[in-house]
Amino acid sequence: MAVRELRYLGDPVLSTAADPVIRFDHRLRAVVDDLMDTVLLPGRAGLAAPQIGIGLRVFSYNVGGLHGYVVNPELVDVSTETQDGPEGCLSVPDLWFPTVRAAEATVKGVDTRNKPISVTGTKELARCLQHETDHLNGMLYLDRLEPDVRKEAMRQARNSEWFWRGEAG
Questions:
Q1: Could you tell me if residue 164 is inside a domain?
Q2: How many folded domains does the chain comprise?
């Protein structure tokens, strides 16, 4: 169990769809433990495995006193009612842009023993569930922005110190 280093926009792991978990063993439990520890740092609501360099379909969340994880999550239900507000991402630090999401969302998946679990949320938790599921599909919230806003977001990201340019480091 450890707090893991984050990956940033530009890192190929963030734009690649994560693989489904097929082995439910000690290695998976270690990944989940690291995700659970890493998401507990202040200012964090959710964390997907690709954000710590692991291309597996797993994410953790920490919203409104609810702290958990989902293995092989699938977004199974979203409301037609929407919410529009600022959204940010640990892999795109310090940049917040208005993003439209469903007001309510449900993900279904399994736990580390391959037993079914379901998480439903509204407001921030709904936003988190959708955001983290997007990560597992190789998508960042920036991909959902209106074209002119996305262009500005990408300009700001490319000019940041944290932007991953593929250099050894």
A1: no
A2: 1
